[in-house]
Amino acid sequence: MSPRWTPNPDVRTGRHVVCSLHAHLVFLTKYRRGALTDPLLLRCEEIMRDVCADFEVELVEFNGEDDHVHLLVRYPPKVQLSKLVNSLKGVSSRRLRQEHEEHVGRYLWGGRFWSGSYFAGSCDGAPLTVVREYVEQQQRPI
């Protein structure tokens, strides 16, 4: 009797591909201004989960502080990471500014919410549990 194969939940399968693509993303607020409060971080996570769903991307972990956010995403090979990042930053910036205009306006000006740059790191070399723990620990102490 041969052992049964159990699928790995971190491996995606498609018609012509089997893959495990994860990225750690970090976005900074413009000028590293501390505009992100706990309610804004919660709303930012909701917005980014919606954007990820549109791209067929899984937002595995989200956390942040007052001036930046960390995301751990699992994405299929058809997704260009730069396009995902542009959409995540663009949609979240627009919605957070619209919904929290007065608060955001006190910290950020000139129509920008996020810094133009970002960090993207491949996570396939490290165990996902380690990366997930790192992102979870990025939350400021309450």
From TrEMBL:
SUPFAM superfamilies: Transposase IS200-like. SMART domains: Y1_Tnp. It holds the Pfam family Y1_Tnp. It comes from Nocardiopsis sinuspersici. Residues 18-138 form the Transposase IS200-like domain. It comes from the Bacteria. GO terms for biological process: DNA transposition; methylation. This is Cytosine methyltransferase. Keywords: Methyltransferase, Transferase. The lineage of its organism: Bacteria, Bacillati, Actinomycetota, Actinomycetes, Streptosporangiales. NCBIfam families: transpos_IS200 (NF033573). PANTHER family: TRANSPOSASE FOR INSERTION SEQUENCE ELEMENT IS200 (PTHR33360:SF2). The keyword Hydrolase does not apply. Gene3D superfamilies: Transposase IS200-like. GO terms for molecular function: DNA binding; methyltransferase activity; transposase activity.
